[in-house]
Every structure is written in structure tokens, then in C-alpha cells.
Design brief:
Blueprint: H1 8-14, E1 25-27, H2 31-34, E2 39-46, H3 49-65, E3 69-76, H4 79-92, E4 98-101, H5 105-108, H6 112-115, H7 130-135, E5 137-138, E6 141-142, E7 145-147, E8 151-158, H8 159-165, H9 173-186, E9 190-192, H10 204-207, H11 210-216, H12 220-225, H13 235-249, H14 262-270, E10 274-280, H15 284-290, H16 294-297, E11 298-302, E12 313-316, E13 319-322, H17 329-342, H18 345-354, H19 374-377, H20 380-384, E14 389-391, H21 404-412, H22 418-435
Parallel strand pairs: 2-3, 2-4, 9-10, 12-14
Antiparallel strand pairs: 1-3, 4-13, 5-6, 7-13, 8-10, 8-11, 8-12
Helix pairs in contact: 3-18, 11-13, 13-22, 21-22
């Protein structure tokens, strides 16, 4: 997953393919799969368990339909080391025929126009979600096919608590706080779960609020990149810090918010001891694995802003599959066929067989299925409704800093005021923006 301001843990969730530690090579196509194999291509993936499972299932289903193609896989490590491997292999012409990598700002950093094959001529491009296409496009050319599902940054909530108290899904922040007041008055349930013992989880009221920022200031990301807009001086962007502060000041957090960690928060939510947990939809699978009833008892709604008519979900997009320009001839044809399969309803079904999706797929016509958790199903209407979803800031701007999670812990703990926290974060991003050589910094 791509890194967002100070979001090391958030990053681990949003792109599991980068949470890797070793590098190895192996074959996922056999002689029986390939029918003797007239073409062999190599596919570079992450070596996390789920990455391997996804690749194995996709290759199995693809080669069953295309017996003349064999696919071998290689894996790469995480973080900076993995990034350096990708950049080095692209620059030396040694990149495998297909590779999985980030979308958004990190995609732009690998010089797609120079290094990658455009997919604009592929029929499936018209079936890709517009939010995803934005993250793999350079100079009007689309270079990536989606692997995996979206993740939503919103509020996971207890359906039994809502049912018992007769609460409605809030479309505005005022409605959300009114629900919290009713939950607190009823007693026995923490209105808002916070788990600052695992600091990355403190950021969701800020990061998950970006749909609301974009709704008010559509050009915020562009101005932010140019140092023409800041969190502390943008009323819309400041709201996330203010909301973090407001929940604490109202006494809506669980008593152990300072020390609780993610597993504690998921347990509270799954067992009805907490009503709301601002988080990413990527945590749902682990929660359901431990607490199976959470599949039907936990839902998800978008972080509400001030305008109910503009209510919508902030999205983290899937990673992308890319073809380097060094892939030519029959190998290029085979690589394009593979990407077309992955970006199809059949490819989505193959991925679902390998593991429950983190959210809706970025391909029109792909169904989640009836057995996915309710919180994941709750994301689909936001993607289906025009204007009801938009990208997290990290996909629209390379500007980020390392200290957001520490700052939001301070704001959410009553140690620092929202305006001061926002100003500190504006200062935090400056060094990184200067290192990138961005104009205006």
C-alpha cells in the first residue's frame, strides 16, 4: 500500500502487496496448464500470503482458458527496498513481463510514459472505475489494470446498537454527534472507539474526510501540492482535526482509548461494546475471521460532513498491474491477455475465490457476491452513485509527512488543539515536499 502522511500502519493495510520481507521466484504455470506452453511470461508480485494466493488462483484460471501461455512468478520485498527494485529493473530493462505496483503518486514516480505500455487500446479500459483510472493515467494514457478491490475510509458501526436505539445512518456530522449523544445516554456502549495504542488508527477522521474536503474545495489537492493551500488555513481541510478534537471533548471515546490497539477496537465493535470505529474497510476481514457474527452485525458508512447532499466515501484504490516496454512480440500479446482477464468479471471472481475482497472491484460488472461481510457490501452504493465517492489525498498529491499519526493522537487525546495540530502537520510535510523538488516549496 502506498504511504500517506505519516500513515505507516495505514499503508500496511492499503497495499498488502508491499508488506513483504523476502524475494523469491517460482512457477505458477505447469506443463499441464500450458499444454506444452508456446509462450512463457513472468509476473512480479509481492510475497505476502494473500498476494501469492491471488496470483496462484488468477494464473490457474487464466491458463485453463489460455493453454498456450505459461506464467512464472517472482516476488519482491516491501517498502523502499521493493521500490528500488522496481525502479532499478525498469531502468536496466530487466523488468518481468507483468508487474504489480502502486497507483497514484508512486506510480507517477516510475516514469510511466517512458517505461510502461499504454493500455488505451484495450476494450476493458471503458469498464474501469473512473476513480481507479485517475490513479494509473499519465498524459491521457492509461497504463494499469486493477488488482484487488477498493478500500473505504469511513465509520464501521454496530448494527445491533443502531437497531436497539432506533438510530439512522448519519449523513452530516451533526447527525453523527447526535447519535453519539444518544448512545452515551443509553449507557454501556462506547459511542466512538479509538485505539491510540496503535497510532496509525488515529488518522481516519482526517484522512477519511477527504471526500468532504474535495466536495467543498475541488482544487484543494492541486493547490496543496503547489503549497497554495494548507490544512490549518482551509476551513474544509481543518474539519478532520476539529472532528478528532470534538469526539474527545464530548467524552465519546472508550475509556482505554490511549492504550487500546486495533484488536481491542475490533473486539469492542464486534461484540457491541462500541458503536462506531473510524477505520479502513481493510480491517473487516480480520475482524470477521475472529468474530464471524461481525459479518452481519457490522456495517460501514462514509464519514459525514456538513452537507448531506454531498455525502460520500473516501477511497483507497487497488494496486495496478503494468507491462514494461521491454515486453514485446508474443510476450506482449500474452501479457495483454492476462491483464484483460484480471480486469474482467471472470478475473474478479477468480480473486474472490482466493480471498474475500476489501471492497468493491474497480471493474464494472464485477459482483461482490452474497457472502461478503455487510460492511463491504455497504461500500457499493457509494461507488454506484455518481459523485458519491472520491480518492484519498495520497492518490492526488505526493505531498505527505511522517508525523500525522502522532499529531492526531495528541489532538484526539486533548493534548493539542485542532488548529495547532493542523499547523504542525502543515510544517511536517514541508521537508518531504522540498525533497521532491516540488514547485512553490
Amino acid at each position: 500500500m502506498r504511504f500517506r502522511p505519516g500513515a505507516s500502519g495505514l499503508a500496511l493495510l492499503a497495499a498488502g502487496s508491499l508488506v513483504l520481507t523476502a524475494c523469491s521466484a517460482g512457477s505458477l504455470g505447469s506443463s499441464s496448464d500450458s499444454g506444452g506452453g508456446s509462450v512463457e511470461i513472468t509476473y512480479l508480485i509481492g510475497n505476502q500470503d494473500q498476494d501469492v494466493k491471488d496470483a496462484e488462483q488468477l494464473v490457474k484460471d487464466f491458463t485453463a482458458k489460455n493453454p498456450g501461455i505459461t506464467i512464472k512468478t517472482e516476488t519482491r520485498p516491501a517498502g523502499t527496498e521493493g521500490d528500488n527494485i522496481v525502479k532499478t529493473r525498469l531502468s536496466t530493462g530487466d523488468m518481468p513481463d507483468v508487474f504489480n505496483y502502486n497507483t497514484g503518486s508512486l506510480f507517477q514516480a516510475i516514469a510511466p510514459q517512458k517505461n510502461l505500455v499504454s493500455l488505451n487500446d484495450q476494450p476493458y479500459i471503458g469498464n474501469l472505475d473512473d476513480n481507479f483510472k485517475k490513479t494509473v493515467t499519465a498524459d491521457g494514457q492509461v497504463y494499469g489494470a486493477p488488482l484487488g478491490g477498493f478500500m473505504g475510509g469511513g465509520v464501521l458501526y454496530s448494527i445491533p446498537v443502531y437497531t436497539k436505539l432506533g438510530l439512522k445512518i448519519p449523513k452530516t456530522w451533526a447527525e453523527f454527534m447526535a447519535n453519539n449523544a444518544k448512545i452515551k445516554a443509553a449507557g454501556g456502549v462506547a459511542p466512538v472507539i479509538q485505539t491510540y495504542g496503535e497510532t496509525w488508527t488515529s488518522q481516519l477522521f482526517v484522512l477519511g474526510d477527504f471526500h468532504n474536503v474535495s466536495a467543498v474545495e475541488p482544487d484543494f489537492a492541486d493547490k496543496y501540492t503547489k503549497n497554495q493551500a494548507k490544512y490549518a488555513t482551509s476551513p474544509a481541510a481543518l474539519k478532520g482535526f476539529e472532528h478528532t478534537e470534538a469526539v474527545h471533548d464530548a467524552g465519546y471515546e472508550n475509556k482505554d482509548f490511549a492504550s487500546a490497539k486495533l484488536p481491542d477496537g475490533l473486539k469492542m465493535l464486534a461484540t457491541g461494546k462500541g458503536a462506531h470505529y473510524p477505520n479502513l474497510s481493510g480491517v473487516v476481514a480480520n475482524m470477521v475471521a475472529t468474530y464471524p457474527d461481525a459479518a452481519k452485525n457490522v456495517g460501514l458508512f462514509a464519514l459525514p460532513g456538513d452537507d448531506a447532499s454531498k455525502n460520500g466515501l473516501t477511497l483507497w484504490t487497488p494496486g495496478g498491474l503494468y507491462i514494461p516496454k521491454t515486453t514485446t512480440g508474443d510476450k506482449l500479446d500474452a501479457a495483454k491477455k492476462f491483464l484483460a482477464f484480471v480486469a474482467s468479471p471472470e478475473g474478479c471472481a477468480s480473486q474472490t475465490k482466493a480471498g474475500a475482497p476489501t471492497g468493491p472491484y474497480a471493474v464494472k460488472g464485477c459482483a461482490l457476491g452474497d457472502d461478503v461481510p455487510q460492511a463491504i457490501k455497504d461500500m457499493q452504493p457509494y461507488l454506484d452513485k455518481p459523485g458519491a465517492s472520491s480518492l484519498a489525498l495520497e492518490f492526488l498529491s505526493p505531498v505527505k509527512g511522517p508525523s500525522l499519526e502522532q499529531i492526531t493522537v495528541e489532538v484526539g487525546s486533548g493534548i493539542r488543539k485542532a488548529k495547532d495540530g493542523a499547523a504542525r502537520y502543515d510544517e511536517d510535510v514541508k521537508k518531504q515536499a522540498q525533497q521532491l523538488g516540488l514547485a512553490g516549496w
